[in-house]
Design goal:
Keywords: Cell outer membrane, Ion transport, Iron, Iron transport, Membrane, Receptor, Signal, TonB box, Transmembrane, Transmembrane beta strand, Transport. Helix content is 9%, strand content 50%. The chain is mostly beta strands. The strands form 10 sheets. It has a 22-stranded antiparallel barrel. The protein has a 5-stranded mixed sheet with strand order 10-16-17-14-15. A hairpin with a 5-residue loop joins strand 44 and strand 45.
Amino acid sequence: MEPSPSLRRPFTASMFLLGATTALTAVMMAKANAQTSVSAPATSAAVSAQAVNFDIPAGKLSSALVAFSTQAHVPLSSQTPVLAGKMSSELRGQFTPSAALSHILSGSGLSYRVVGGSGFQIVPASSAATITLGPVRVGGTVAHQDPTGPGVGYVATTTMSGTKTDTPITEIPNSIYVITKQLMSDQQPQNVAEALRYTPGVYSESLGNYSNGSGILGGADGIMQRGFSTTSFVDGLALNSASAGETAFIERIEAVNGPASVMYGQTNPGGMIGISLKKPTETPLHQVSVGFGSWGRYEATADVSDKITKSGNLRYRIAAIGVTSGTQVDQIGYHRVGVLPSLTWDIDPKTSLTLLGMYMYTPGNGTNYMQYPTCGTLIQSSECPRIPKNTFTGYKSWNQNGSREAMFEYLFKHEFSKYISFSQTFRYENSESNKKDTYTSEFINSNEVAIVPWSIQGRAETIGLDSRIYGNFSTGPVNHTWVVGSDFRKVSYLQNALYDRTATYTQSIYNPSTDAIPCLDLYSTACKVRGSMGPYSYFQEGVYFQDQIKWKGFSVLLGGREDWVNYKSDRYSVSTNNSSNTLIKSDASDVPEPQHAFTWRAGLTYNTKFGLAPYFSYSTSFVPQAGSTNYLGQPFSPLTGNQLEAGLKYKIPNRDVLLTAAAFHINENHYLISDLEHSGFSTDVGKVRSQGFEVAANANITRDFRVVASYTYTDMRFANTNVTAKRTDPLTGSTYGNAVSEEGKVVPQMPRNMFSIFADYTIPSGLAKGLGINWGLRYIGYSYATNVESFKVPSYILFDIGTHYDLGQVFPALKGLKAQLAVSNLTNKYYVTSCGTLFCYVGQGRRFYGNLTYNW
């Protein structure tokens, strides 16, 4: 699709940046080939083996080196002119002297060599025997974490998702919660929705066992943030496939609560999910595992990273998974093989390039499109016996749901000077999906439902590019971290969706028949088929700017963005009848005019010297309703939202403990709900309002004891609407009484209260040394069904437990071998996650998962 004239200018700018990156990479490659590679200095045990506790503040490099020599008790020599004008970042915690010195000298253009086996000499990097690696954490607090890395224990202190710059979480005036690699390792989630179970403000499994966390939104299906649906961004770019739903490929997950449109464009005001894929590590990593679990799950994974060149400036990583499993529901399987190779090249000290590829084949994605009626789930009685969680109400012979996905991505960075840098992320995705399935359409009686066979073949191609220039400068005592960028995304999608309307297919709930052959032949006189066919395309472009202003303890965040969106559809409706094989094509749907909007945010944070950071912010959001129309074919106005948020963040000094509290007030206009009078269409309900507060704690209490805990209160209501509706009887589905206004009523399917806590403890010594146990509790409060609060879905409490055992702690011959077991919903509680008018989603029952992991 050609972009409209209003889009050409920003699109041209992005393509110019893409060309500039290619040229710059070529120059750096030539430069790198002309240089002599260096390797890490050969250090002796006398100066590198013993871990030392360091407490060195940020400041002049010369002062930091004096402090280093004093605290490490190691002789150090250098030349004053070499150090003049250079600065260093802080260092706190336990490190080997060589690792600590590497960190202090990072970015200075200097390195070191060992003198006499017991001391160090500071020299220019070109004079050193080798470049040095970053610090390896032994204990204490790492001075500065990688903002896209795994975090430390259950705590991450920096982020890229909040501002697209490397920024401490305590300096960002909105809520950001990080699911670290260690937390995922202890809980063993098998998709993104499960990984977000303990995250404040996030209701991650509102659809219960419906989607298995593997839908086209990268695992975002059914995930609600502050009451609104969400979108996944992978390495800063939105995607259109399920590649982000595979936890074996993920380094960390971030929930950015509140509007994120200023940095990412089209996102709902509730927030976005930021996912970082695995990339080459500076420290070698070699890991393989085999696993087993409930419903016949068998799994094997590998994760290997190491250097290619002796200097380590060229590194690789390969993550892979193979899994086959049943699911909670009979006849629905989950099968996947995938690989994620990546390569990082530090072309020179100021330039790096990372390449990633991904291929994933999922012949069965575990999706259960069967909703169960309220009779037998929400309501259980002699008339409505409980519907077993494993009930399959589709057809065994018409039960295919798979996909293939391929992806290429690169991340490029270059530092022109200490004032200005450039970075760019590009991704190309290609995916194919094939679905032959049934879905529940109507409740007939307490023993029977109507189902509709359908067939969908889809092919999607997505191109995304984010280019930005950023840097730092000072105006007197005021420091600025600024970024200016442009991103675009183009999605081309071809879909053929056919629905069998030949007859009313029914299925017994308690004794389902699994054999039937649907009639979906467009040219057969025996079939009556309806559906839609053809392509559509979507183009989005944004230009954004941001300035983070710091003065003493104050941090001011200002940003703005202009978005343009264009949508084109050549799809048409198709239908046949039973008397002839005539194919009736309707006109293509109306194409809305290109939409655009300006979004902005402003915030203020004050960081006290003792770690407390109060903040306040205002931000806006924009989501086009491209391709969505009412029953008259009229396009909807864009979703526009705004949020006020105030809160406190407290990072305990010199401890891995982060405490947060936030209160928010969100308004969104043109919120869509199902049109009860015109089936299959939506209607604009007007304004909705979500308000509440969140409190959370992420803490590494000791090296062996880690905790995450949170409480969320969300009150989401229809705030300003003229829509009315009658209340619905949950047993029969019939309406009763007079129509009442939806204004002031609670928006359905979002619980008002949520509380969770998860803790892990590893026994440090004694006979059980290396043995760890963990325990978690999840409370989900009641929610309403229907837009006029017809009935409630009750609250529920779930318990999770687990254990892990490092066999190498007791048996030296088994060093690197770890056994683990995780159990979710320990009591096998039967619960309902949410309900519509007449159907409900049933939650996941008890699930075991165990594995053996070997690291070397």
